[in-house]
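pipeline/complex-builder :: batch 7 item 3
reading input block
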Amino acid sequence: MSALVNALDRLAVGIDGFDAIADGGLPLGRTTLVAGTAGSGKTLFGVQFLVSGVERFDQNGVIVTFEEAPRALQQNVLSIGWDLPKHVRDNRIAIVDVSPEPEGATIEAGHFDLTALMARIEHAVNRVNAKRVLLDALGAVFPQLSDNVVIRRELHRIAVGLRRLGVTALMTVERSDEYGAIARFGVEEFVADNVIVMRNQLEAERRRRTIEVLKFRGASHRKGEFSFTIGAPDGITVVPLSSIGSNQPPSGDRVSTGNGELDDMCGGGIFENSIALVSGATGTGKTLMVAEFMKAAVQSRERALLFAFEESRDQLIRNAASWGVDYERAERLGLLRIVCRHPESIGLEDHLVAIKQETEAFGPQRLAIDSMSALERGTSAKAFREFVIGITGHVKAKGMAAMFTNTTAMLVGRETIAETHMSTVTDSIFLLRYVELCGEVRRGIAVLKMRGSQHDRDIREYSIGANGMTIRGPFESVNGILAGAPTRGRITEHDRLSTMFAHSYA
Amino acid sequence: MDYVLTLYVAGQSRLSQDAIGRVETICEDHLCGKYQLEVVDVFEHPDMAEEDKILATPTLVRRLPPPLRRIVGSMSEEQKVLFGLDLVERADPVREPEF
């Protein structure tokens, strides 16, 4: 759905990834419910809505806090780097404090309504000329007063009142289950038009945060759950951001893989703004190919960024040196940056955000990730697919030439899940395989795919030495290498042709 | 002055007028001159409502004597209002035992 068919205008939240899945933002002038379990990030989403309003769109806002006292709320978002007290001092944000009073019990003696609250909200909206309003933790009002029916009716009146004020509002409300009723206390009944659900669930023993636009009445949005991360200084980052954003146009220019023979095999190098996948078993030379790729970048005075998830920095530098690649010198020249991370240390979404932040900061023309399979360990297939889509989208948006490695589980032949997820999004695939011939282990390389270019169809033998990878001629008279069961047999051209067309003689 | 009270109401609604009338009556009957009652319309003074964190209307705030106490509602349940002002021992009306 494109923005053109939207009957409603939108108000950008200021979280790029979210505004993309929401087809532009929240329905303008309406109230949207944000439901989530405790700790799902609702309040942060709401506060970011207001802070972005002030800092990015010059729109002021009002926070109505039902649960946390203003001081606690301000303290909690300070770690992200949001200076709420400053915005309050500058009259950009007003806070209406409805948090429970620690002292002084409330006694109910007859009918009541929440007109006082509405008057306070309206006063605050007028005072700072607010366009955005956050009502945080609506459920916290229920224990303060006994008559839930009255509270629901009154909150409905407030929702109507907000619409009259012309503000775009978010109401956060707690829910008990990730996939149960939308909200506690039946709150969704009066603002059911627009609902966002935030989740924080355990998946394959890792925390995974997602956000979903459940519905926008009369307005388009993307469906399904999207991963997000929380961190300074961006607050909430919704992950598949770059797959939606605009891409650099495909480039016809090529860059070297760092290996002349391999460049020849793929018709003159890999394209700028493309992704090459190097797939092979352990010890076949994937990290070496990355080293050569990095070296080629440095030689042509381009910046290269290497993410290593399998080896420590020392190991990496030592190994590269054994192939004649001096990583430390390249770093001193400011042309290389190496980031070593433990794959399990943080979630996949966090890795993706970190990779994006590093590329933004360093501005590399080339990117290498060694390896994707290390990142895939212990994640769900869905989360990994999202990661792959996110990272490929980012590479394309930045116009980088990227090389990713993938370790196959089998020493010979066959593929892993990483390959199946990645093969459709990568532009080139290089296969590295062990070949057992006459009791000897040899190595073979093949260019399986080269999008937009002719390439060598042969499986060539290569060796690894002090000068890196040396690619030789094709394996002659060997079949079944890719299947993992090579057989040697001398087949003449005549024999081959006659088997291919055997049926036509029948 | 023994009692300092503020009654928050919303405009001239029936609820407001009922609450004002009942609070005035209770004060006259039970506090006989030893009180100060201020009636505040939240539409006219939302800043005061903000200051006192008033959520519902009508709300009677007992500033003195301490502790601070809020009584919410139309004040139709007189026993509860009296309890909130520490003028009776219990919030429930005392009923004659039935046989």
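note: The first strand of chain A starts at residue 10 and ends at 11.
queue -> next item
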